[in-house]
UniProtKB/TrEMBL annotation, chain A:
Lineage: Bacteria, Bacillati, Actinomycetota, Actinomycetes, Kitasatosporales
Name of protein: ABC transmembrane type-1 domain-containing protein
Pfam family, one: BPD_transp_1
Main location, first listed in the record: membrane
GO cellular component, one term: plasma membrane
Natural source organism: Streptomyces ambofaciens (strain ATCC 23877 / 3486 / DSM 40053 / JCM 4204 / NBRC 12836 / NRRL B-2516)
Alphabetical GO biological process terms: transmembrane transport
Membrane topology: Multi-pass membrane protein
KW Nucleotide-binding (keyword) present: no
Keywords attached to this entry: Cell membrane, Membrane, Transmembrane, Transmembrane helix, Transport
TrEMBL record, chain B:
Species annotation: Streptomyces ambofaciens (strain ATCC 23877 / 3486 / DSM 40053 / JCM 4204 / NBRC 12836 / NRRL B-2516)
Protein name in the entry: Putative transport system integral membrane protein
Residue ranges crossing the lipid bilayer per the database entry: 28-49, 91-112, 124-144, 167-187, 227-253, 279-302
Keyword field contains Cell inner membrane: no
Source taxonomy: Bacteria, Bacillati, Actinomycetota, Actinomycetes, Kitasatosporales
One of the record's GO cellular component terms: plasma membrane
Length: 277, 315
């Protein structure tokens, strides 16, 4: 296909506009994180800090229990991701390979669960967890995160299973391998990259999650990073901008790194799930 | 791996709904149970419980037993002007975010589908809002919008467009300001979905249309859009729901202020439940939100089906 030079120029101009729109808030966050207080107080802010400093990061750790919060986030996200993937993989396999009333209901639930306002879920969960004495506990949050991440875990994993040609399994069966052997020696290895991608995606969404954590975690020593971050923003919205930016920047790094690693697989998995179902 | 341990157990089908087939069907139930039980116990169950709470006077921290009060919560809701105002704001927000988000994401997806030099950078950047915690997105935009130290007002000053203002606390500017953030935050998912749709359109059709002398717009209308439409409608429907139910972004940006101008239904229900302890009333709000969103969505999807009859009808 030929594209005229005029159209090309227009395309590059549009692309540049998108790049600016996408990048400028993030660059501003980074810029703010490295600015000393006197530069933040000045009326004419600059993009590049004249006098870059790491004080904001130090101050952020002094003001709030960031390490503790990061540890809580890590436990919650890791726990949720591992459990979700371990229990979702067999069900996703069945959903992808067998049509039955159960799998149709499960697929329907995956779709419908996207539409529910979480408040309808969190009030009863709050009451249930309170009776189990799991309010203000990271394990309680993990339980909630597991169920919350199951729909998209099932969705992604079922997509990956469908991408494995059933002929391979049938061939193994013809060769005399039982269902089990087939699953373990043929399907599982092919599925492994998809399982890892799903786990990492579940990890990121749990690491980033805010609403459930806000409701369920009461004391600072139990709270996750997103909840702790809101403490930097005072009640009146007056915030210490430097440490706020520094802490926010740090909280983003893990998910950015993980996301960069698995980005292609996530989009691929979503496509497989969306296109083939 | 789990399938191993589960499938090893003696498999018996619980009901006769599946025709028995040799081999593969056995054990399906046991493969499903590890996920099905948590779903039923921690998701379906609580949802039903939540709906039932809407018909009670459940409150937090109260010692007397909870009473069944029928539809009283819903009757109160009918007259709760604050709730309906938040509902209206929720709709404005959902549509106000979803529509520009879709148009921008469509443009970006079309660009990323071209052979452009900076494509890798745009792809990488387009991922950033997706990977960020919503709380950080909110904090980040607060820094951008900051009346004194923010870059937005400084840019406006540099361009000679006035002295800027406090966008998030202005009665007129707060909702548009948070909508811009919503558009920014949700663009990647929509872009990726549309890009996936684009990459499924057969290239030969494009080339054939180009050979026939069809211009860019006609190629888009006759080739690209028909192929893209299913994905476009699916992602738009989902975005409408997600945006209507969103919470963290606006909670961090404005907490619903100023004067309730950005109080989305979820923020309202959250305050009602966890600040004032009105569990029953907040559950009723949740029910109304689900019901009305379902109706709106049904209308939207019915429109989609009707629109599907007119081939290539973009508008």
């Amino acid at each position: 296909m030929r594209t005229s030079t005029g159209a090309r120029a227009g395309q590059y101009a549009a692309l540049l506009a998108y790049l600016v729109f996408l990048a400028f808030p993030f660059l501003w966050l980074i810029s703010t994180a490295f600015k000393p207080p006197q530069e933040l107080a000045g009326l004419h802010p600059t993009w590049i800090p004249r006098d870059p400093t790491l004080d904001n990061f130090r101050q952020a750790f002094d003001e709030q229990p960031l390490l503790r919060a990061a540890l809580n986030s890590l436990v919650a996200a890791l726990g949720a991701a591992l459990i979700a993937v371990v229990i979702a993989t067999p069900m996703a396999y069945v959903m992808a390979r067998h049509r039955s009333r159960l799998t149709r209901a499960a697929t329907g639930w995956v779709v419908v669960s996207q539409a529910f306002p979480f408040v309808l879920l969190i009030i009863p969960l709050f009451l249930v967890l309170k009776n189990l004495r799991l309010i203000n506990s990271v394990p309680g949050l993990v339980m909630v995160y597991v169920v919350w991440s199951l729909p998209f875990a099932l969705w992604m994993l079922a997509g990956y299973v469908r991408a494995v040609p059933p002929e391979l399994e049938e061939a193994a069966a013809v060769d005399g391998a039982g269902r089990l052997r087939t699953l373990v020696s043929v399907t599982a290895p092919l599925l492994a990259p998809g399982i890892v991608a799903t786990a990492l995606f579940a990890f990121i969404t749990a690491w980033n999650e805010f609403f459930f954590a806000l409701v369920l975690l009461k004391t600072p020593e139990k709270q996750t990073l997103p909840v702790i971050l809101t403490h930097f923003v005072g009640a009146e919205g007056v915030a210490d901008l430097g440490p706020l930016a520094a802490a926010a920047f740090l909280a983003t790094l893990p998910s950015l790194v993980v996301f960069a690693l698995i980005q292609r697989r996530i989009t691929g998995g979503m496509m497989a799930g969306a296109v083939k179902s | 791996m789990t399938p191993v341990t589960d499938a090893r157990r003696p498999a018996r089908r619980a009901s006769g709904t599946n025709r028995p087939r040799p081999g593969p069907d056995h054990g399906a139930w046991f493969l499903v149970l590890p996920a099905l039980i948590p779903i039923l116990v921690l998701s379906v169950g609580p949802l039903l419980y939540g709906v039932s709470l809407a018909f009670t006077d459940a409150q937090s921290g109260r010692t007397e037993p909870t009473q069944w009060i029928g539809t009283l919560n819903f009757q109160d809701l009918m007259h709760d002007t604050l709730f309906w105002e938040s509902f209206r704001i929720g709709l404005v927000w959902a549509v106000g975010v979803t529509v520009p988000q879709f148009l921008l994401a469509l443009g970006l997806a079309l660009l990323l589908n071209q052979n452009l030099r900076l494509r890798w950078l745009a792809r990488a950047l387009a991922i950033v809002p997706w990977a960020m915690p919503e709380v950080v997105v909110g904090i980040m935009w607060r820094l951008v919008y900051n009346p004194d130290a923010g870059i937005l007002n400084e840019t406006l000053r540099d361009l000679g467009l006035g002295d800027g203002r406090d966008w998030l606390s202005g009665l007129a500017t707060a909702l548009p300001a948070v909508i811009v953030v919503g558009v920014w935050a949700g663009m990647p998912q929509t872009t990726v979905a549309l890009l996936a749709g684009l990459q499924n359109t057969p290239r030969e059709l494009h080339e054939a249309a180009a050979v026939d002398g069809a211009g860019a717009w006609r190629r888009f209308r006759t080739v690209t859009w028909p192929a893209l439409r299913p994905v476009a409608f699916a992602i738009t429907a989902l975005n409408l729901i997600w945006n209507f139910n969103s919470f963290a972004l606006v909670y961090v940006l404005t907490s619903g202020g100023p004067g309730g101008r950005t109080r989305l239904p979820m923020l309202f229900a959250y305050e009602e439940a966890f600040r004032y302890g009105q569990f029953g009333y907040a559950a009723a709000m949740g029910c109304v939100m689900v019901a009305l969103v379902s109706v709106l969505l049904a209308v939207f999807l019915a429109g989609r089906l009707r629109g599907g009859l007119k081939e290539g009808d973009v508008a």
